[in-house]
Specification:
homotrimer, 40 strands, 16% helix
Chain lengths: 364, 364, 364
């Protein structure tokens, strides 16, 4: 097993036995088999190892190639396969380790400020920071230890960043943004732009106060292309441990709780708040000033128009409880049938009525 | 009141009387009380001043701390509070002034082109411009007076920018973009990318002409992550005074009127036009070639599929008048009940019919 | 016809005859008429030429100015207009050529690496590449021939770019991104950010493996502000010839087929796949692990919650066939009317029942 060969043009390899030893697994089959890479079932090719982690998961691979892998990692021996396998107690974790082994080796970045980075003289940086070329850091910015700030990131005046933060390329932090420790922000994300607040005066929209900032607590991760606006007078805040997916929009003054999961393209208008462990699925929208209780879960594309208590699942636009919405949706698909029934009933009743009338006339 | 103390590590302070004098307000309570900061009710702490602007607004503050502020600004004396207060005729404006007083002082940026900015020799800059490090300005670009262009902004060839414009970090203007005066653009916004126009030829999608540009008129503000595509042959245009929130998408050839408000995540397909004072709430979508009349208001998440006259509110997808949509929505929540009623009626009528038949038979 | 005059301050001009010769068209009217620009009907002014390409298209122009152009390009002679015209077999293509003639001339960029670009020593660049100022290219990156990489683009370690690719400003490619040939990517787009995958452990969301990359095949075009996440262990892949509009989000592990058209603000959750020639209209959302068959077309704002076979049009949220959805929508608008009918029927039947009872009593 060659630890140093993984540069351009020289692919890494290992025997099945070496891979099994690396992850503490057990080989079934030929341990001397040479493996040249690792890939998921949908794109694995001969010579590579793959992952079969689902109980009873099909071993057919993709439609064109069948099961193309030369070996696989799994949790329990598969007697229905002739291929060599590695049995691992945590097959996903084990496979991740094997994938990493085959990835191109990347030398660590040099600690310090690269030439081509622009760091204002008044900024303070902790030990072990990597500030790459093309970074701009403003006046009086404070950055903790071991942060990695990548090209094109702009950190405006008076921002404060904790320890062990990672800012991917082209992130923008407006002035006075605060990040806790271990915050990770993906490319293109913008924290602290002005809130969308205007008052009308003589036919013009006049911008209201935009004096607040954005505060991101510890262990928060923000996807790519996220925008979080500053508070009006105070902070827009994202609570500890919350994870936010790509292209999410969070308006001014919002107070997002701890350990929330906000999926892609969610839009939250100004002054909303959420409890802890709230989950918003993709493309959900919240009207301004909404509160969602602890553990509330809102389904994809729902539109929340009123406060919702926690511990429940909500769907639809306007969003109501899953129970109610499922009933409504079930009936909605039967609307054309219902309309026909209704027409039929009306005709029947009209007939009955006219017969009654006729009968009444005859009787009279 | 110390005008120069607000640097890192040294917090500003002022007495309540000094703050009242600053904003032309009147103190009720101890004017010598020392105040160390200003924050909104949801995050104010002891020693700070807050804002109580709603008539009859609760003075309870947040759930954990109660009313934590040491004083507050308000519009009319609150006899239900023991706390010192400043009465101001415009409490929001007054409070904004006070918040600003406590913010860290930021020295103005140096006028001129920073080292580390790349400005093509053929570009023309007006007086008083601040061009920060990491800016790229292309060939034949013209920029007016007193513009502030922040790091990572790219202004491509032949673009023209008016006076007093502010471009926040990492904005991109494609070639021949035109900005009027006092245009403000937040980070990550992209003006002038190609429209999504293709024709199919032998199974390929072939890009159609992308020869136009984007024109932004005076006093327009664009949020973060906005994308506005160039026109096919001419301009995509945003009218004077229109304000556009984060992550809005505007397609090629659109003609957005004056003083519109387009909220976050709105998507407008190609060749749409809007009158003046149109409001689109969050996540609204417009099909291509739609026209919205003056003053049309479209509610959140609505989908506009046909031209809509102005001066009305529209909801739903497909969007119809608020009146119609409210009736539909009201009935939708009763759909399960309606279905039960319908089933019940059918059974009743079936019974009646069989009884009639039976009665008929008996009568016969 | 002056080929060199189109610099700032000096507008180009040509006679109608010269323009007709340029595009191989035929003049009807005064061929010596001097033309000073070209613009679409909605913004053309006197002295310019416009396009009238629709059969029977109105010649009224816009409401304020009427038909302001001095001449127009068309496919078949318009006898209902007194204006000079150029008849062209492909009027749109001809008009595009004329528009281009009047655009400001832009000198080609210098081949090579601009000062102010940061290209790692281990990166390999093909012949004819233009690497502009403010570009950052990481370790072991390979770039083919004739690529144009614009300011603010960041290409992270071990990425590979084919021939003839264009990367507009402020694009970010994470490590190991692969682009085929003739790939065009608009500003602000981010390829390879981490997927939104977490598992919960002791109340924390722990990030799962993020070891894959993004692969973009030949002839793909990506709009502005697009985000495509890396695969978990393998690749997220966009097939040959697929075109993706602004602000589209594609989750980890997705396998998008060939020649798809994904319109603006579409959101596709993780592990989805599409066949070839799939079309998703604006703001469509797909749940994770969905498959759409070849040629499936999904209408604007629809939400796809289950696999859908190809060759059909789908609408609504949850999405069903157009046929079914159109029937549902038609009935939805009649819901208030249906509810009234239902109430009426119930009352009628109640009356009938009570009359029957009364009749029964009388008869008894």
């Amino acid at each position: 097993m060659d630890q140093h060969s993984n540069t351009i043009g020289i692919a890494r390899e290992a025997t099945l036995g070496e891979l099994a030893a690396m992850i503490g697994g057990q080989v079934i089959g030929d341990a001397s088999l040479r493996i040249f890479g690792a890939a998921p079932l949908y794109e694995v090719v001969s010579g590579q190892i793959t992952l079969v982690d689902g109980v009873g998961q099909s071993l057919e691979g993709n439609a064109e190639t069948g099961f193309a892998a030369s070996a696989f990692v799994t949790g329990a021996a598969r007697t229905d396969s002739p291929h060599p396998q590695i049995i691992a107690s945590d097959p996903r974790g084990a496979f991740a380790q094997i994938v990493e082994y085959f990835l191109p080796a990347v030398a660590p970045h040099s600690v310090g400020i690269a030439s081509g980075a622009h760091v204002h003289a008044s900024a303070q940086l902790g030990e072990g920071c990597v500030i790459e070329s093309g970074v701009n850091i403003g006046r009086c910015v404070q950055i903790g230890q071991r942060c990695h700030i990548m090209p094109g990131v702009v950190v405006m005046d008076h921002s404060r960043i904790g320890d062990d933060c990672v800012l991917f390329p082209n992130v923008t932090l407006y002035e006075r943004t605060q990040l806790g420790n271990r915050v990770l922000i993906h490319s293109g994300t913008v924290l602290g732009a002005y809130g969308f607040g205007y008052r009308q005066h003589q036919g013009q929209h006049i911008r209201t106060a935009q004096l607040g900032n954005v505060v991101i607590e510890d262990d928060v991760e923000l996807g790519a292309g996220v925008t979080i606006d500053r508070g009006t007078y105070g902070s827009t805040r994202i609570g500890t441990g919350t994870k936010i997916d790509n292209q999410v929009m969070i308006g001014h003054n919002c107070q997002i709780g701890q350990h929330n999961l906000l999926c892609s393209q969610v839009g939250i208008a100004g002054s909303c708040s959420t409890g802890n462990y709230v989950v918003l699925a993709g493309q959900v929208g919240l009207k301004d000033h909404i509160h969602l209780g602890d553990g509330a879960i809102v389904g994809a594309q729902a539109g929340v128009m009123e406060d919702l208590p926690g511990g429940q699942v909500y769907l639809g636009s306007p969003a109501t409880t899953q129970r109610e919405q499922m009933q409504i949706m079930a009936v909605q698909r039967r609307l054309p049938e219902m309309r026909r029934s209704l027409k039929h009933l009306e005709r029947s009743l009209a007939n009955t009525a006219s017969k009654d009338t006729a009968a009444g006339e005859r009787a009279a």
